[in-house]
Amino acid sequence: MNAAESAIEAAGLGRDYGSTPALRALDLSVPRGAMVGILGPNGAGKTTAMLLLATLLAPSRGVARVFGHDTSRERAAVRRRLGLVFQEPSVDGLLTPRENLRFAAGLMGLGGAVARAAVEDALTRTGLVEQASRPARQLSGGWRRLTDIARATVHRPDLLILDEPTVGLDPEHRDRMWSLLDAERRDRGVTILFSTHYLAEAETCDRVLMLARGEVVAADAPSALMAGVGDQVVEVEGPDADLAAAALQRAATVRMSIRTERGYRLGVVGAHDGIGAVLGAAPRVTRLDVRRATLEDVYFAKTLPRDVTMPRHAPDGRST
Amino acid sequence: MSALAAIHAIVVRDLARSFRQKSRIVGGLARPFMWLLLVGSGYNAISRVDGAVSYQAYVFPGVVVMSALFGGMLTAIATVYDREFGMLRLMLSSPAGIPTLLTGRAIAATAVGAFQGGVVLACAPLLVPVTATELGAAALVLVLAAAVSSVLGLLVAAPLQSIENFAGIVNVVLFPLLFLSGALYPTKQLPVWLRLVAELNPVSYAVDLMRGALGQPVEFTVARSLGALVAATAAAFVAATLLFDPERRLRRKERGRR
Description:
The complex is a heterodimer. Chain A is an alpha/beta fold. Chain A has helices at residues 46-53, 75-80, 97-107, 112-126, 141-153, 171-188, 222-229, 241-251, 272-281, 295-303, and strands at residues 6-17, 20-31, 35-39, 61-66, 69-70, 82-85, 159-163, 191-195, 207-212, 215-220, 232-237, 253-259, 263-269, 287-292. Chain A has 2 domains: 6-220, Rossmann fold (3-Layer(aba) Sandwich); 224-303, 2-Layer Sandwich (Alpha-Beta Plaits). The longest helix of chain A is centred in the middle third of the chain and has 18 residues, at 171-188. The model of chain A is unreliable at 313-320 (pLDDT under 50). Chain B has one domain. A two-stranded antiparallel ribbon of chain B has the order 1-2. In chain B, helix 1 packs across helix 6, helix 3 (55-77) packs antiparallel against helix 9 (166-179) and helix 6 runs antiparallel to helix 8 (132-157). Chain B starts with a helix and ends with a helix. Classes of the chains: A alpha/beta, B mainly alpha.
């Protein structure tokens, strides 16, 4: 893909903090209008990657271009086309949402009637009109986060970078936020790069990037990543879980094997033939589930260090 | 044009924030009047300064500058709140650039300082003999005093990471700047080393200019005072610009860890 067609091109992009590499070497190519999810445990390098692409950090190595502009040397040109949402809302509680948006529009260089029109448009798009004149500190966390999204889109950027935008949102506000972002993509072809710990949110992405310990451990379309784990995922629990796992490995092709607190999570190809063998070989299996693979399976398969037992609670709160 | 839009946005926001925090404004206005009416009245009874003017009359120019100093500097130092609550990162991520952002903030802080000092100055005819021309000149000096205070405030805020340092900064920075400026007593009788410190203090020149504008005897020439204030403002602005660069801060922190 040539640079003119790309929203983001990064090659060997890395950043150290002192002697600690926060991000080792990121290679990334994001076409215009694509949605890319960055997943990984805390400390994996997600925020560092996004801050580097957003020009807020200088790389220790490598290079990145956003819409053809070098993120180190053409910061202002990149920033003009960029909307940023940080982990914590950047909303001034003493100002109303309308005033917050006017402030943001001014920072992006919009003034006068153009700024006023952009602000009213953003308020309408985000459904904030009724809340627009109340001090932001009186708004719920959900409305404050939507104010943040409106703030990031007020200048109609071509690229949105969002760092865990749905943390702490109730399902209604989360749904509203994704509808807004979908509309930005559909109507204006905005490119979206976001990080999240809610893995289901990344399943609709064009591409998922998984980071662990500062390294890219997986990068592909979600369907391809899930297919890589296996046709199906078998979860076995109970005193005979070890026997069941061994039997399944003999009867089917196992592409993923994760030790859980009570047993195993196995990604298999051709599992149906092996289920009978599992039950025959391991009578004391208390739970046996066969289901389709999810991004959560990929997440644990790719990000857990070897010999580490999968935690009982998955990132999106579902019990394993 | 886009820089002007950014400066305008910052000024509007900072002024809205300042005037919505009513207790801060009331406190800022109460401080000089308490000094003039309570401390000034008390000292009137025991002291006469420079040509036998009353202490209240002597201290009036200094109190006007004190209002500008506290108003301008504290508004600028409030940048540390923005750092703590994420607004500074939002500003730094805009295409405006650090000098533009600091210019906006300095203008807003200057306006707040000039407003607070202006309220005191407007009461001058009630407390000291003053002509309209002197009042006009004093207003110009007030703006200059507020401007230097604001930029010094930005310089103080630049390395601060959290609002926990805020009260300490008032004691460690604001009070020494005030006490060693000749605002409250003549610095001529101070020990030599403190007199030298006072001569390095930019607020001394703002106080001296204000004295001259209001018809009182001065220590420095107008050119020297103006030169010192302009130089201090420019130097503090450049230093603040360098210190606000997040990359530079990070590199400093990394060097500290090694």
